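dumping this here before i forget
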Amino acid sequence: MTAPKSKNSFITEFKEFAMRGNLVDLAVGVVVGGAFGKVITSFVDGIIMPPIGKLMGNVDFKQLQVVIQKGGEEHTLVNGNVITEKIPEVAIKYGAFFSTLVDFVIVAFVVFLVIKGMNRMKRKQAAIPVPPPEPTKQELLLTEIRDLLKK
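structure:
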């Protein structure tokens, strides 16, 4: 049987895990991605969709929907008492879906441009010839010995 790990080694192991570069990079990417998503949603809702709605006859995309069940109140009489029951509206909100779809297309296009730029930089970097490394002191010494032995 192996001895149980001490609490201190568990904390040390967790710190090593949490401070790895990849995990921190992922956390930063999630936070920045969330903020970027909000910016794109604001851009689409405030700048892109209003002109498109104006061109389509003053349409507010957030309000476009197909109502399946109208909302309201239903009154029933039970034992001489009127009971009011609220009925929620049930609708397919295709306008909001369309706005979200435009959000997605813009985000996907920006990510595509970023990846394309990164790939271009990688190709340029790969095309630059890397000079051979300088010989070590030991290699220089062995070369000198070899040359002296040849003489």
